[in-house]
Amino acid sequence: MLDLRFARAVPRSATVVALAVAKAAAPEDDAESDETGDLDVLGTPPAGVDADELAAFLREVEHKGKAGSVQTWVRPLQPVTRLLLAGVGTGDEAGWRSAGAALARKAKGEERLAVLLPPDCGEAEVRGLAEGLWLASYRFSLTSDDDDGPKLRWVTLVTGAEASVADALETARTAARMTMLARDLTNTPSDRKTPEWMARQLVREARDLTGVTVTVRDPAQLAAEGFGGVLAVGGGSASGPRFVEISWRPRGAKRHVVLVGKGITFDTGGVCIKTRDGMKLMRKDMGGGAAVAAATFGAAARRLPVRITALVPLAENMVSGAAMRPGDVIRHYGGITTEVRNTDAEGRLILADALQYAVRRLRPDVLVDLATLTGAQSVALGKRTAALFSDNEALAEELTAAGADAGERMWRLPLHDDYTEALDGDDTDLVNSTEIGGGAMMAALFLRAFTGDYRDRWAHLDMSAPAWSDKTDGDLSKGATGWGVRTLLRWLETQAAS
Ligand code: BES
Ligand code: MN
Ligand code: ZN
């Protein structure tokens, strides 16, 4: 992880690149206009630079301050060899996040960067900037030499007001570190990433966190306790399924949150097999599980006073002589039965067990699940927007707000009660797939059938498309995004406070 720390002055040895930050004109101004807005230069001059000279230089600069746009100046003033001017837009957290990400990418060829913070720089600005810097410098590589060129290693945030923003840097550090953990897990190829391997990684990550316990159920234990969905989906794989339960139980916590995350380590579709193109990226199908685990670890690392249980059912959906078939009947944890109509609608089958386990055994205050559940999610909302489902207005608003602050967008879709009859089985309680369209909502309605008396305290996030990015862009690197970790951490902060 990039070394990011505060200093009161630009370190002499370290300064390869210095920076000042520009703020765009007011939001009501036409953003597309070619006019240069009033440049508001926020940074303080580095030592050895004459303030008047800097001011004169900046007066000549044409920079619209657009968030994430960076200008590079070579030897603009003695003794600065390179100066980057980064726009922060209107100066909100998202603008600072874009600036941080753009700086990390522009300064890639340098080892050390000093960022001059404005004197009135607050928590949101530091949090955004630091998250952007950290996340944009994320890399995942399995190359033989493990050397993909020069790398930015040290960033100094220059400020005289470190005390007031030190917490913000630590908050951002945890969010970034846990997002990167989720990215690493999700990027890992599925030959390595078996359910057992995933469980082992989660156990290992929890080892250094006091107060966190992790229990892993193997197939024998799952059979003994009746986790029929997890066993059916995992039955076709040479690598048996697991069920991971992570618990963070701080003293004095008033609320108990249960997070459930889909952990399909690879989804071929099973006997109802996907197309070649359709399964290309299906190693990402545990992105929800990675996100809820990472968020729980992050909350524990920050000692947030809220009890959290994360449940991650893990299975590989494969084709084999032992795989489940269409027409098979599953008896889920707790007894609800489902006829398998489509073996590719496997995520809901493992989540059903976990949701029933949550409501029967854990009795939480609130229940949230994250899953790469349907292709229909991206048809409805595209690549960068998750689908949110909940019958609880307040919970829906809280999650949406947390996502907006975190830079992870979601949009609420309906749960129409009259559609549920399409899920009725002929001789089972439910079927796992229908042919009436509305795929993302139908999947959500299926899950809702397993929330029992928690129906109004439950939310479901379908993050199928946002879990992955086709290109490097802003704080996202090509590949796994770690979607949900930052949203959940923000939301958990509010849960700890209530
Ligand atoms: N893991 C997929 C959903 C998915 C698709 C995630 C594309 C990310 C990108 C899920 O298990 C699945 O296959 N869903 C089916 C459900 C259908 C068979 C009812 C789908 O969406 O096609
Ligand atoms: Mn599937
Ligand atoms: Zn799947």
Structural commentary:
Residues 342-349 form the Cytosol aminopeptidase domain. The protein has 498 residues and is α/β, with parallel strands linked by helices. It has two domains: 3-159, 3-Layer(aba) Sandwich (Leucine Aminopeptidase, subunit E, domain 1), CATH 3.40.220.10; 178-497, Aminopeptidase. The protein has helices spanning 51-60, 93-106, 123-136, 162-187, 195-206, 219-225, 228-234, 276-279, 287-301, 347-362, 375-381, 393-406, 439-448, 485-497; strands at residues 3-7, 18-23, 40-41, 70-77, 80-87, 112-116, 154-158, 212-217, 242-248, 256-261, 263-267, 307-317, 329-331, 337-339, 366-371, 385-390, 409-412, 430-431, 458-462, 468-469, 479-480. The strands form five sheets. Strands 8, 9, 10, 11, 12, 15, 16, 17 and 19 form a nine-stranded mixed sheet that branches. The longest helix has 26 residues, at 162-187. It binds ligand BES, manganese (II) ion and zinc ion.
Arithmetic mean of pLDDT: 92
Overall domain count: 2
The third-level CATH topology of the largest domain is: Aminopeptidase
CATH architecture of the largest domain: 3-Layer(aba) Sandwich
**What structural category arises from helix and sheet content?**
alpha/beta
Report, as a whole number of angstroms, the end-to-end distance: 33 Å
Shape: elongated
Number of strands: 21
Largest sheet: 9 strands, mixed
Number of helices: 14
CATH class of the largest domain: Alpha Beta
Hetero compounds: ligand BES, manganese (II) ion, zinc ion
Rg computed from alpha carbons, rounded to a whole number of angstroms: 24 Å
* Beta-strand fraction estimate: 15-25%
Low-confidence stretches: 33-37
Tell me the CATH superfamily of the largest domain.
Zn peptidases
- How helical, in percent, are the residues? 25-40%
